[in-house]
Write a structure and sequence with these properties.
It contains 4 helices and 6 strands; from the N terminus they run E-E-H-H-H-H-E-E-E-E. The chain is an alpha+beta fold. The protein has one domain: Roll (Thiol Ester Dehydrase, Chain A). Strands 1, 2, 3, 4, 5 and 6 form a 6-stranded antiparallel β-sheet that branches.
Length: 153
């Protein structure tokens, strides 16, 4: 595993590309839908064919969960990536069975936390691509990163 990153290591323009792509299966789409998002176009191919999506489509929330895994695997924050809010999430193309998705994350800006002096707040944008290089999701999220040397209060 790559070395752990601290707030001081992160700066605007720094990019992280997922170390691998993730292949989505029909079974996984249906299992997630059954448990968390039981809509016909996520549960059944035939229902998907007659829907807006014109085929079985993954829940956007399944896609977001896969993206989280890919981000954690490629951005090694010391102690783990602690979420501090989602500013934007957009699903731009359906994710289908057999799609292989990958992420490209970029640090947009950083600032010290005023309420948690041992952490900084990192704002990042993630673009998610399928195997045809189509953007299937984009997001802007904030996360906490620990300072290597916490400020003394």
């Amino acid at each position: 595993m790559a070395s752990e990153l601290y707030f001081e290591d992160l700066y605007p323009g720094l990019k992280f590309v997922s170390e691998r792509s993730y292949k989505v299966t029909a079974e996984e789409i249906k299992e997630f839908a059954e448990r968390y998002d039981p809509q016909p176009f996520h549960l059944d191919e035939a229902a998907g064919e007659s829907s807006f999506f014109q085929g079985l489509a993954a829940s956007g929330w399944l896609t977001a969960a896969i993206v989280m895994r890919l981000r954690v695997e490629s951005i090694h924050i010391a102690g783990g990536m602690i979420g501090a809010g989602v500013e934007e999430i957009r699903w731009t193309q359906p994710v289908r069975p057999g799609d292989a998705i990958r992420t490209e994350a970029e640090i947009l800006n950083t600032r010290l936390s005023s309420s948690r002096p041992s952490f900084g707040i990192v704002r990042s944008r993630t673009l998610v691509y399928n195997q045809r290089d189509e953007i299937v999701m984009r997001s802007v999220v904030n996360f906490l990163a620990p300072l290597r040397t916490p400020k003394q209060t």
